[in-house]
Amino acid sequence: MTEAIKRPRRKDPQKRTVLPTLPPTSRSRRALGFSVAAAEGRFVLQKCDDCEAVTYPPREACPKCLSMNLEWRDMPEGGKLIAETTIQTSTNVYFRERTPWRVGTIALDAGIPVLAHIHGDIAEGGRVRMIARTDKSGQGVLMALPEQETENMADDKQLRELTCDPKHRRALITDGRTQLGQAMAKALSAAGASTVFVGVAETWRPFAGADALAAIPNVEVIALDVTDTVSVNELASEIGGKVDILINTAEYVRAGGAMDRDGIVTARDEMEVNYFGPLRLIQAFGPGMRFRGADGVNSACAWVNLLSVYALSNWPAYGSTSASQAAAYSLSQCLRGEFHGSGVKVLNALFGPLEEDWRQHLPPPKVTPEGLAKAVVGALQQGLEELTVGAVADDFLTRWKQDPRVLARELTQPEGA
Amino acid sequence: MTKRDARVRQAYDGVVAAVPITIPYQRYSPEPAHWWIARALGELVRTAGITPQDIDGFCVSSFTLFPDTAVGLTQHLGLTPRWLDHIPMGGASGVVSLRRAARAVQCGDAEMVACVSGDANHVDSFRRMLSSFSRFAQDASYPYGSGGPNASFALMTDHYMKTTGAMREDFGKICVAQRDNALSFPHALMKKPLSLEQYISARPISDPIALFDCVMPCAGAEAFLVMSEDAAKNLDLPAVRVLSTIERHNAFPDDPIQIRGGWEMDRDEFWAMAGIAPDDVDLLETYDDYPVISMMQFEDLGFCKKGEGAEFVRGHDLTNGGSFPHNTSGGQLSVGQAGAAGGYLGLVEALRQVTGTALGRQVEGAKTAVVSGFGMINYDRGLCSGAAALAGPGA
To answer: Which residues of B touch A88 (CB under 8 A)?
Structure first.
C-alpha cells in the first residue's frame, strides 16, 4: 500500500530551491514515435505489418522477417513482473537524487519482455497494467502499475514523477468569469489542489456565478486581465513563486472569417486574448515555474493551454479566431521547448465546440464546461501532454493525423467541418 | 537450419598464443586509451624480442578510443600491418580476437598478430559510456533508473535466484574465492581479504546486487601475440595451443530474460573440437563482471547441469589450490574492469597459468584451461559469448 503524500509545509525562504535535473533525454529518432503516443497516454509498440511480430526497443526493421513495415500500434496493457531490482545507486543525477528506484522486467501479454518503472504496490511476480507517459525529460517511458487500483496509488513516488496531479498543488486559472473557468476551479478543488487562484478581469464588473466561485473550497479570486501586461506582471510578482499548475481559460471567440469582417478590430481582440494573452503569461509566470520544476511535493509541473481544435487547421466559419488559436498552438511548441530541462509539462487540450454563448448556434455534439474541466484535471492526474475533448475534436484529430492536407481541403468546402 | 558437424571445422594446427602482457591497472588515470594500448604493445615487442616491424597483424579492442579505431592506431603507433581487426565485443573480445588472429596466422594472411585491448578511465568516463553505450540502451534501458550493468545484472540475478534457488551465499562464495586468488596477484586493485560476512552485509547497489557483486571500472591494458608454433620456437617463447573456440551472438533472443548464453548452443561442438571433456580442464576463466554470469557459464559450458550452478559452487573450492580453480588472478571482481581489457583478463591469465608463469599463485600442474567471454548488454542481456580451450606446453 502506498503511503499518502502529506501536504507540504510552507516553504522556508532561506533554503535553497532544489534545481531541476532530468532523466536521460537522448533517444533515437525512431523512438520518438513512442514518446508521441506516450504524450497522449497511449501504450504503443512497433508491430510488423507483414508477420505481425511485436518488437521493442524501437527498431528500423522486423527482427523476425526483416520487413521494413513496422508500425506503432496500441498494445494490450497486461503483463507479469518476472524480475525486479531496486536501484540504490545511479550514475545519473536525477535518479541519484531519487533512489531507491524500482525497475523490473515485464513479460507483456503482447508477447515480448520490456524494462519498465515499477509501481511500489506491485507484488513480486504479480500481474501488472502498463502505462506509457512522458517523464521529466519529455520522453516516453513505460511504467507498470498494479492490475487493480490500490490505496493512494497515485501518490507512489515514481508514478508522481510522471504525473501532474493537482493534489497538494497550487493552480492558477486565468479567467474565472466564464462557466469554463468556474468549472475548472471546482474540478481542481475537488482533485485536492491546496490553492486555486482564479483570475477575474475588471473585478468591479459583476458576473454570473461569482458567489458560487468564491465559495469553492481553497479558491482565491484575484485580479487578472490577460490583455493587460501590467496586470499580469503584478499578479506574477505576488504569486509567481507558488503557481504549480497554470491553466489558461481566457479565450476570445467570434464567428466569421476574414472577407466579411470590416477592419481588424475584432481580429486584434482575438489576438490580444488568444495569442498575446498566453505570451504575457509565459513571460510573467514561465521563468518562475521553470525554476521550480523539482521543488518538492508541490513543484511546478504543468502549463495547460485550452485551445479550440481548429487551432490545428482553419475552419473558415470561425476563420479569424482559428488563426489566433493557431498562433497560440504554435506558441505552445515554443513553450515546450523553453520548458525543456525544467520538468514542467505543457498540456494542450484541444476541444470541440463548447456549450457557451459565442458558439450557441453550432449543432451538437458539444462539450460542456464541466466535461472539459473534468477531462483536463484527469489528464493532469495522468500526466498527459496532448488531449482532445469531445467527439468533434476526437474525430478532427483522427482526420488530421491521417492526412492534414486532405482535412484542409475538406474544411474549405461548405459542409467540411 | 541444420547443425553443422564439428568435424567440418578445421583445427587450429600449428598456431599458438604467447607473451601474456598486463599493464597494471589504475582506478582513475588521466591517460587516454591510446596510451594504454601503446604501453601494452611496447611490452609485447620487448618481451617477445621482436621489433614493431615484425608485427604484420594488429587486433584492437577498446571502448574509449573515439574518434579513432584500429586504423588510426596504426599511424599513431607506427605499425604497417597487412591484417587489421577491431573487435568491439567487450567481454568477449579476448576469445574472439584469439580465434580471428589464429585463423589469419594459420592461413598465412599474417605471421605475427598483436592482440591488444586497453581502456582509459577518467573520473567521468563510466557515466559517459553508459549514457551512450548502444541505441537500445539509450532508448530503452538507460532512462529506467540509469543503473547501467548493475541494474541489468540485478534483474538477471533476481530471476536466476527465484527460478533456481541460488542464494546470495553462493554468489558470495565465488567472489570470496576470487579475492583469495587475487591476494597473490600483484596487479589486482583489491588487496584486502574478503569474508562471506563482508560480502553479505555490503552496501546494496541494485537489489539483490551489493557492492562486492560489482566490478570496479578502471584503466588498464592486456595483450598477447598469436603466431605459428615455429615462430614461437625460434623466439624461444612459452607457447599455448588453441584446441577449440566458439563464438555466438544474440543467442536465444526469445528468452524473456537471460537465463543462458550462446555457449549452450555451441558447447557440444566446443568439446568435440577440443577433444577433451570438462573434467580434463585444470582451470576455468569465466567472464565475471557479476557472479551470476560466472554461474551461468559453469552450466552452459557443461561443467554442471542447467540450474545447478549454485550446487556446483557449494561442492567445490574455487581457489587456485582448490578442486576447481576459477578466475585464478582474482578475475575482474578483484582485479578491476579495465573496459574491453576485462575481456582479455581471463585469457591472458590462462596463458600464464598453462605455461607455468603465473604472476600470482600458480595452479599446480596446470596444462589445460578453458577461457570464456561474455559481453555487451545491448539492452536487457549480454549478446556476445565465446570460449576457447587452451593447452600449454606440457598438455
So the answer is: 203-207
Give B258→chain A minimum CA distance, Å. Answer: 11
* Cα separation, A293 vs A155, whole angstroms: 18
CATH number at residue B85: 3.40.47.10
Are B205 and B213 in contact by the 8 Å Cβ rule? The answer is yes
What is each CA distance from B4 to A86, B265, B384, in whole angstroms?
A: 43, 12, 20
Dist CA A78 CA A97 (whole Å): 30
Give pLDDT tens digits for B259-281: 999 999 999 999 999 999 999 99
ipTM above 0.90, yes or no: yes
Residues A318, A276, single domain; the answer is: yes
Ramachandran area for residue A52 (φ above 0: left; ψ -120 to 50: alpha; else beta): left
Tell me whether A43 touches chain B (CB under 8 Å): no
Residues A148, A187, single domain; the answer is no
Contacts of B135 in chain A (CB under 8 A): 28, 57
Q: Average pLDDT of B146-156?
A: 95
Which residues constitute the domain of residue B17?
A: 11-124+217-234
Query: Is B227's Cβ below 8 Å from some Cβ in A?
Result: no
Would residue B331 be called left, alpha or beta, if left means φ above 0 and alpha means ψ between -120 and 50 degrees? left
Residues in A closer than 8 angstroms to B258, CB to CB, are: none
Mean residue pLDDT of chain A comes to 96
Chain B positions touching A87 (Cβ under 8 A) are: 145-147, 150-151, 154, 206
